């Protein structure tokens, strides 16, 4: 693994085929990855806890963040002294309200979550039948790195990532359950989001078949200049580890000051709106 002299964090892109509907087995898979790979933050795909294609079972398999599955992952986080981000169906203790969430569990016991804002409701996707959309951004702190969280279809809304960038994040993590039909689209927008915001973009996708869907895998990380840093295999389980550097990020922001100029543009628009 490449070391660096400046402030860095190592992120494990855990593109692991999950067991549909089997939360205990999927948590066991998490543990095996924590034992095998060294990183500061481990990222698993959208809906990893249960698998994506659980459909109506979401109403019985979803849990509150205070329930057993999340406590089990929290115990792993504390045991190994690492942070973990993974996808899950989370109920908010309100009847009928279930979120498609990116759950962040920290080694100190802190638990945070981002609820998917843009639900996929087209083609073979009908998330609006099962989930309530989120409303708020979520920035987590991992050893001094500020990281924004998004889920799958969210990545196609540039204003969402721009909002994170304007809030000063160092990178954005997108967990996903993207089928092979979306592969070209995701691989096109990932470097674009990195370049236009001068941030790191990390993408962790489901892989392989689940019922009538085939997820393409192909997880990866892109640096602030749009260069591919790591790339996971297609269609199967794979884990890669990438190092994010504060020094490299600062250089990229200086070379292409899109956020500085976005703030200047926003101030000009605000002035025009007051005239």
UniProtKB/TrEMBL annotation:
Pfam families, per database record? CN_hydrolase (PF00795)
Q: Which InterPro entries match?
A: C-N_Hydrolase (IPR003010), C-N_Hydrolase_sf (IPR036526), UPF0012_CS (IPR001110)
Note the SUPFAM superfamilies from the entry. Answer: Carbon-nitrogen hydrolase
* Domain of life of the native organism: Archaea
Cross-referenced PROSITE patterns: CN_HYDROLASE, UPF0012
Which residue ranges does the record assign to the CN hydrolase domain? 9-246
* Name this polypeptide is given: CN hydrolase domain-containing protein
What organism does this protein naturally occur in?
Candidatus Methanomassiliicoccus intestinalis
Q: In the record, what lineage is assigned to the organism producing the protein?
A: Archaea, Methanobacteriati, Thermoplasmatota, Thermoplasmata, Methanomassiliicoccales
């Amino acid at each position: 693994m490449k070391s660096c002299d400046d402030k860095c964090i190592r992120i494990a892109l855990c593109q692991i085929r999950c067991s549909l509907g089997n939360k205990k087995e999927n948590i066991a898979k998490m543990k095996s990855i924590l034992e095998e790979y060294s990183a500061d933050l481990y990222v698993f795909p959208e809906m990893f806890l249960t698998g994506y294609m659980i459909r109506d079972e979401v109403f019985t398999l979803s849990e509150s963040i205070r329930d057993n599955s999340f406590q089990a992952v929290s115990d792993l986080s504390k045991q190994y002294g690492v942070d973990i981000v993974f996808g899950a169906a989370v109920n908010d203790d309100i009847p009928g309200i279930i979120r498609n969430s990116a759950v962040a569990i920290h080694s100190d016991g802190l638990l945070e979550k981002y609820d998917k804002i843009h639900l996929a409701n087209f083609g073979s996707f009908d998330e609006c039948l099962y989930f309530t959309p989120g409303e708020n951004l979520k920035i987590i702190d991992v050893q001094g790195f500020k990281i924004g969280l998004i889920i799958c279809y969210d990545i196609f809304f540039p204003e969402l990532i721009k909002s994170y960038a304007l809030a000063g994040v160092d990178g954005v993590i997108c967990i996903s359950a993207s089928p092979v039909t979306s592969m070209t689209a995701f691989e096109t927008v990932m470097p674009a989001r990195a370049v236009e915001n001068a941030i790191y973009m990390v993408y962790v996708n489901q892989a392989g078949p689940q019922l009538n869907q085939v997820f393409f895998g192909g997880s990866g990380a892109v640096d602030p200049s749009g260069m591919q840093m790591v790339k996971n295999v297609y269609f199967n389980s794979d884990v890669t580890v990438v190092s994010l550097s504060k020094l490299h990020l600062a250089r990229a922001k200086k070379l292409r000051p899109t956020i500085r100029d976005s703030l200047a543009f926003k101030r000009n628009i605000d002035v025009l709106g007051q005239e």
